# Entry
Amino acid sequence: MKTPNIGISAENRQAIADQLSKVLADEFVLYSKTLNFHWNLEGPDFHSVHLYLETLYEEQQDVVDTVAEKIRMVGHYVPATLKNYSQLTHLTEKLKGKNDSQSIFAELLEDHESIIIFLREEIQPIAEKWKAEGISDYITGLMEQHEKIAWMLRSHLA
# Structure
């Protein structure tokens, strides 16, 4: 691969790729869990929640792809195995509750909030320490997407 000449040093591009790889792992695990919940949901609100979960996993699939593209943009290859993701993620694949909407939404809320916290912590270093303001802006937007979903999940659980 030809080295990108984008005004970010090799060392900083490596640091950014390392952090984005953690983001990718979290996003992929969240995608997988959301798909699992979509497939295995049970309960009286099945139809509406099943459709909502489908919307969430489709949006999540786009996020996964975009994060992977950001890693490539800074000149690195994407960690793309389940083993990589399990080593890099902050989330757990172990399911805690039942297959009803309350349990599913509580678990998804916990995961979205965990991702929000991690992303929030990355915004400043990416922009200031590693000189990648565009990626920092992307991370801010991604955090806002997770905040909106977290709000919706919280509202369902209220």
Notes: Residues 22 and 88 are 5 Å apart (CA to CA). DSSP finds five helices and no strands in the chain.
